[in-house]
Sequence to fold (148 residues):
Amino acid sequence: LLAVLVLGALLAGPAAPLRAEANFYEQRKIEAQALEAFKHIVSLWEEEVYFELYDVGMAASKARITREQFAQRMVELSWLPTGELNPTHLKATFRFRTAVYVTARIHYKDKFNPDKGFTTEQTLLLLKEGGQWKVDLIALIRAPFSGV
Fold:
């Protein structure tokens, strides 16, 4: 039986070479997954669900800040993203299978004065860790100030 399998494999010809780089279609699929993860991250932030938001943080940023410290810092921020992300201004840039930059135009409102707000374009790195897209928590804390 083994001889038949080996002979069949030889007759079938060489297998497709393994590729480390993603092809065009794989890149688009990876970018689409990262965009969905980014939308989820922004919605958690908008809903002020900071413990769940912490869970989608990169391991490196979790090593820098505890869950409680992160939640406290986010509560103290006066700016909060609001409204739907405009798909026209939402773009993913593939770098590697596990690294995608997402650029979005985000509108922020002041938590304490709803009449105040601003819109800015921002780029955040998403890394795939443990099969899930993760974001830098420190970058989220700084996000409202990076575009002002």
In short: The chain has a mean pLDDT of 86. Strands lie at 79-81, 90-96, 99-110, 117-129, 132-135. The two ends are 69 Å apart (CA to CA). Residues 48 and 99 are 26 Å apart (CA to CA).
